[in-house]
Amino acid sequence: MLRINSRAIILIDQLVLSGSNFIINIILARFLGIESFGVFSLLWITMLFFLSVQQAAIIAPMYSIEGQHNFDKKSIFQVNFFQIILTLISTFFLILFLGIFSFFSNVIDIGFNLIPVIIFCSIYLLHDYARRVLFLAKKYMQALIIDLMAYFGFLIVLLTVNKEILNSYNIFLIPIFTFFLAILYYLKTTKFYFVNKNKKKFNEYWEFSKWLSLSNILQWVSGNLFVLVGTFTIGPWVAGIIRIFQNLLGVMSVIFHALENFIPIEAAKLYSSNGSKIMKKFLITVFGKGVLFLIILIFSVRFLRPDFIIEKIYGTQYADYSYLLYIYLVVYFFIFSNLLLRYFLRTLKSTKVIFNSYVVSFMLCSITAWPLVENYRIDGIVLGTLFSQISIFMYLLSKSLKYD
């Protein structure tokens, strides 16, 4: 019974995250307008880069290494030190990236406008780390509470403020407040805030995550290179268009994030106790359920019509691009497939294979990004994203089949 309740809380937590993000992006897309929403989306994509590095360098090894043993506070105190260092490094590189990007393009206004963006990025990373620790410690209700405070709080404040004063930059002041309150609650209720340095633990995490971190960096570049090229050649509004499709398919994110909080830990335990064959069978079962859900989703979109969906949710200014929804459904199928293949390889500690898949994808995307976007505009961005996911899938699958 406890296990069922735990899974239910995890699902509710992901519904809170995805549901809040879904409504928040609808509000911003409507009130900011296509151009300003594009700038906001570009800034958000940049933050997701640092989050992806954190997932690889801290969260993945924490789940796989600590997840094989009973929860140990002392180990978390050691991981806290790694997280603080990573947050400081991420903040520095965010400032550097925004400065370089604004030098080559006038899309982003450099100056005091970016201070809320920089502050929120640090708080965002710390909050994500806190919720992951709570899931590892099986404190599911506390994880749900801090996510309600952060994300649902963001939504409530956004609904009450005057939308006319919002722009692509000051909008980040709202989550700075709500996410910070969530972190304070985490520190007060868990007392997991002690920090210990441990060289042996660092080496263990580094050996696990070095290829995975490089993989995630290349994954972000491959997945967003087409958007970045489109921003330079077409305009920032393309980032907003891509964002609405990612937001609309946020229902898939409920599944993906729930998998991230449960599947790697479960796979690690099955591999440790029963070997790779049982773990593989478990992942194939999850894949089958995902495919069934995707088929139902495709038929639902076909029945309702993409143009009707986009216009009613985001407004008429986005409706002209509704046909791209079908391509994005295929993109998400391959994202889901690649996710499970990475779980399999990560548990076997074959993280270099994951890195190599992104090297292949990065090289192909680097060659094709500019001509695709230059000749096919926003269609080229979406097709390039699909091409990137397919190339990763083919490589990971070929390597995974070699394991018994």
Radius of gyration: 21 Å
Proportion of β residues? Answer: under 5%
What is the H/E string?
HHHHHHHHHHHHH
- How many helices does DSSP assign? 13
Low-confidence sequence ranges: none
Number of spatially distinct domains: 1
**Helix fraction bin:** over 70%
In total, the number of strands is 0
Mean pLDDT: 86
Q: Tell the overall outline.
A: globular
What does the main sheet amount to? Answer: none
Give the quaternary arrangement of the chains. Answer: single chain
For the termini, the CA-CA separation is 34 Å
Structural class computed from helices and strand pairing: mainly alpha
Question: How would you describe this structure to a colleague?
Answer:
The chain is mainly alpha-helical and 404 residues long. It has one domain (2-400). The protein has helices spanning 2-66, 73-104, 115-136, 140-160, 173-190, 199-233, 237-248, 250-274, 276-304, 306-314, 316-319, 324-347, 351-400. The radius of gyration is 21 Å and the shape is globular. The mean pLDDT is 86.
List the helices and strands and how they pair.
Elements: H1 2-66, H2 73-104, H3 115-136, H4 140-160, H5 173-190, H6 199-233, H7 237-248, H8 250-274, H9 276-304, H10 306-314, H11 316-319, H12 324-347, H13 351-400
Helix pairs in contact: 1-2, 1-3, 1-4, 1-6, 1-7, 1-8, 2-3, 3-4, 3-5, 4-5, 6-7, 6-13, 8-9, 8-12, 9-12, 12-13
Write a concise keyword list for the protein shown above.
mainly alpha, 86% helix, 404 residues, 0% strand, globular
Task: Provide a short characterization of the protein structure.
The chain is mainly alpha-helical and 404 residues long. The chain is built from 13 helices and no strands. It has one domain.
